Amino acid sequence: MTEPTVQPLSALQHVPAAQATAKPAAQAAVHPAAQTAAQTVAVQPQVAVQSVAPAPSPGCPPPHPSPRTPKLRLPPGSCDAHCHIFGPADVFPYAPDRTFTPYDAPKEQLHSLHRHLGVTRAVVVQSSCHGYDHRVLLDALAGGGGRLRGVALVGERTGRAQVEELHRAGVRAFRLNFLPHLRTPPTRAEIDTVLERVDGLGWAAQLHVRGEEIAVLESLVRALPGRVVVDHIGRVDLAAGRDGPALRTLRALLDTGQVWVKVSGVDRISRQGPPYADAVGLAASLVAHAPERVVWGTDYPHVNIVGDAPDDGLLVDLVERIAPDPAHLRRLLIDNPAELYDFPAH
After folding, report:
1. What percent of the chain lies above the pLDDT cut of 70?
2. How far apart are CA 273 and CA 310, in angstroms?
């Protein structure tokens, strides 16, 4: 499958947004929404204005400047099932009511990283910093050549026609954020409205929760129709141990057959730092517990964290420890994400 020509990762970091959006002669398809926005800008009076990217928030470092080449050679069809695209802000503005501002991390930068890591497919998750404006996601999906799927944010004002447009573009899940630093947690009435909007499309519900919240939300998770995906191992607190309420609940939910877990974010929950042996051990136990309902992702470009961004090359190499059984590794990277996000069989 031919991918769009992209610049090296290093060439796209630490540059103003106006430079990061310079288009090469051979360009991937641009979604009409983005094209319209560009045309609107084009008719403005020609005034020399220096484009300034918004200042990143604390806890939003730039991506790792030089991720190592993984020792693990990923098999064809491997999927990064959790990553984000941010901006560039002068083309795809961040939401005015956002709770954080990241460094720009445009689609070209993500494509370059995936080529370096050996990733074939990816699931791009709409970030709350872009809110319900999905132009950045639609643009990425349109230029993905079939190798991308999306996770949307659906609100009470999101109409069915918009949802169907997202589905045609390649969205196959919606995300519910329960972390207070991202938004006020959704009420049951809001969740019911979202479920009505996406009814009949087969989308999964993707839950972003923190630690003990998974136990509090257990009845809600069990009541949701269709498949449910818990992001980043539920962001559990490893200090509570593997028999704490959060992990007991997570394992019980996995046993229902309808709940999946992303064994991503080991860098977020580790109490030891790289190579995150404590979190990797937990992720490996969940893969062994339910190998048919786990997926993996980088969580690139790593926002709302403590310290520097992790090395994505290291994160790839840790996959072999998370899924040491070759059959489980294939499920984690290829078969499970293909089933969950409706990729063609590989």
Report:
1. 85
2. 10
Instruction: Specify whether 299 is catalytic.
Output: yes
What gap in Å lies between CA 243 and CA 268, rounded to an integer? 20
Reported as a single tens digit per residue, the pLDDT across 138-177 is 999 999 999 999 999 999 999 999 999 999 999 999 999 9
> Is position 8 within any domain?
no
Count of domains forming the chain: 1
Q: Is the pTM of this model over 0.70?
A: yes
How sure is the predictor about 8, in pLDDT bands with cuts at 50, 70 and 90?
A: very low
Laid out side by side, the sheet with 228-230 consists of 79-83, 121-125, 148-152, 171-177, 204-208, 228-230, 259-262, 294-295
Structure tokens at 42: 């084009």
| Structural domain contains residue 31 | no
The single residue of 299, 311, 312, 335 carrying the catalytic annotation is 299
The pLDDT, as a whole number, for residue 51 is 53
CATH number of 108's domain: 3.20.20.140
